[in-house]
Write a structure and sequence with these properties.
The protein has 144 residues and is α+β, with helices and mostly antiparallel strands. Helix content is 34%, strand content 40%. The chain has one domain: Nuclear Transport Factor 2, Chain: A (Roll). It has helices at residues 2-16, 24-29, 33-45, 49-54, 72-80; strands at 56-63, 69-70, 86-97, 100-110, 116-128, 131-141. Strands 2-1-6-5-4-3 form a 6-stranded mixed sheet.
Length: 144
């Protein structure tokens, strides 16, 4: 009886989606670091904070364009406080390094209440059993 009850509860959880990874279908279908970056910025744009947080490593470190350092929770709060903007990524390069991928690119944020000048972004993604997580990200304003 106890095994039946446990199986029944697990079945219900699976059917209701409670055990599903947030944004799972898009994220699990991603085949490379460029897609992870685009999915991350789309999640920020769409204010899907559960997806953003789910794909940040517990020991995540982020540095914004003014040099301010954030932990995982602080990074999510930082983006929550920013106006919604579309991210345009260009000159993207991916450098695999074992279970890690180093991604660098230029990004422009447009829309919301203001546009941001170009930024150089460096992200480090790490592969874990459950998928890829972002372990570090830096933003630097591009000055000409």
């Amino acid at each position: 009886m106890k095994c039946f009850l446990t199986s029944f509860v697990l079945s219900l959880l699976l059917l209701t989606g409670c055990l599903k990874t947030p944004g799972g279908s898009k994220w699990t279908a991603a085949t490379g670091a460029e897609q992870y970056e685009r999915l991350l910025w789309q999640a920020v744009h769409d204010k899907k904070w559960d997806e953003v947080e789910h794909h940040l490593a517990p020991a995540f470190v982020g540095v914004n364009s003014t040099g301010q350092k954030f932990d995982r929770a602080g990074w999510v709060e930082y983006w929550k406080g920013r106006p919604t903007a579309d991210a345009s990524l260009g000159e993207l390069t991916v450098q695999p390094d074992g279970a890690d991928m180093v991604v660098s690119y230029e990004m422009n944020l447009s829309g919301g209440s203001s546009s941001t000048t170009g930024m150089q972004v460096v992200s480090i993604w790490q592969q874990l059993k459950g998928g890829w997580v972002l372990i570090a990200q830096t933003l630097t304003i591009i000055t000409n």
